[in-house]
Task: structure prediction
Amino acid sequence: MSMDNDLDVVDDLLAEDTVKDKYLTFIIEEEEYGIEISQIVEIISISDITRVPEVESYVKGIINLRGSVIPVIDVRERFRKAPKEYDSLTCIVVIEYGEYTIGLIVDRVSEVMYIPESQISTPPKAKLSFHNRFIKNIGKVGQGVKLLLDLDKFLQQDNAM
Result:
């Protein structure tokens, strides 16, 4: 094995460590949610959204992001929260989900946060509210918690809605 290959392996490990246990947190109403930073592509301001007929109401439409057309979902509406006018803090968190790129409209982005695996637990089994089915885990941070999104369930079409 050459020295160059050894350095490539070290670079790959360092790159993985820089995103391990890190989450982008965002706000919907006063609740703070998180998505693994490894799935985040970028954060952009609200732009012109083209409506698409016959999609779920929480799918706001599509946008052109530097030549790529991506669907945009309003997280607030997906959680069945009351609609809110978009303001200067409202933004689109662009994520990669498998082979797809998707925009998530959030009230505001909070921060990138380190939450070690030892501080993450599964949610309580009780169904306390509709949107808790979209929560994969709970991150314990100081005296508070961050609700970590389950993108598989969140992005799944729900015929019962």
Observations:
- Helices lie at 3-19, 75-78, 151-154.
